[in-house]
User: Fold this.
Amino acid sequence: MKTLTLANDLRITDVCLGTMTFGEQNSEAEAHAQLDWALAHGITFVDTAEMYPIPPRKETQGRTEALVGAWIAKNRARRKDFVLASKIAGPGRREWIRNGDTHVSAKTVPWAIDDSLKRLQTDWIDLYQIHWPERYVPSFGAWQFDPSLDREAVPIAEQVAALAKAIQAGKIRAYGLSNETAYGLCEFARVAKELGAPPPASVQNGYSLVNRLFDGDLAEASHRLAIPLLAYSPLAMGLLTDKARGGFPKESRLGRFADFGQRYKKPRVVEAAKRYAALADRLGMPLGALALAFVRSRFFVASTIIGATSVAQLEEQLRWADVVLSKEALAGIEAINAEFSSPAAQ
Assistant:
C-alpha cells in the first residue's frame, strides 16, 4: 500500500474505504467488519459524510457517521492509526439537514462539524470536505454551465475563514473540496493565500473509465496547485465490474434504487462499459481490475475510494489494486475513450 502526505502531515493510503453503504445496504455488524478488515490490510484512510448513507433520506441521514462512530468507540486506541474524512452537505433538497440551513457558511461550518464529531464519537476529523459547491455548478452527471441557473452564494472567503478557524480550534486538521470545478480549485487557493489561511488539501470528484472530466482543466489546476484528486466511483457504482455484464444485480445500488445513479444507466455509458469489458477479456483480466488500475495510474490521483457491501468485495478490489496496466492496455483504453468520451457526463 502506497502512502501520500497531504496538508498538515496527513498521511493517506492510495486506497480509501468509502462508507456510503453503511446504514442502508450494510448493517452495523457488516460496517464494522469492513472497517476491521480495511485496517488489518493496510487501508488507513476512511471517507464518510454527514449526508450518508446513499441514497439520502431524512430517516437515515447521519446513520453512516453514527455507525463509524460506534466502531471508533469500541476501538478508541486505534483512532490515531487512520485518517478520517467527512463532509458538510451543500445547498440542495436536503431540508432535513440543519433544519434546512444547508449553506456552507460561518454559521453552518462549526455547526456541521460539531454534529459530525458527536456522531463519529471522536475529538477531531482529519480531512473535512465541502461535499459540493455552495455556488451553482453543473455536477452529478451534468457538465454544461448555464448562467441562468446561477444563485446567490456564501462567499468563498467566508468558507475558507470558517474552515481555517476549525483547524485552529483543533476540530479538523485540513479541509478539502468535492465535486468541484477548475475555477473552484483556483479560487479557493487564491482566497486562502490572500487570507493567509491553509489552502485545500484535496479535491474529491468522480473519476472512472466512463467519467473522465477531470482529465482537462481540472487536471492542470490540480497539478499546478498541488491539490490532488481523491477519486470516487472508480467502478462507476459497479457498472465497471463483471457482475454487471448481464445488467445491474438486484442487490446492487444501481439495481436496488431505480432513481439513483441515472448517469450510469445512459445507453452510451452501458455501451462503453461493454467495450471496456471486451478489452478486459482480450487482456485476460477482470473488468473491475482494468477500471481500478486505470484510475490508480493517473498522475493526479492521490487515493482511490472503494466501496463494497461485503468484505469479500473489498478483498477482490484490493487484489485489483496490485494490477499495473501495460502499454497495450492503456492504448486500448484511449481508443475506446476516443469514441466514448466521458459518456456518464453527457
Q: What stands out?
A: The first strand starts at residue 3 and ends at 6.
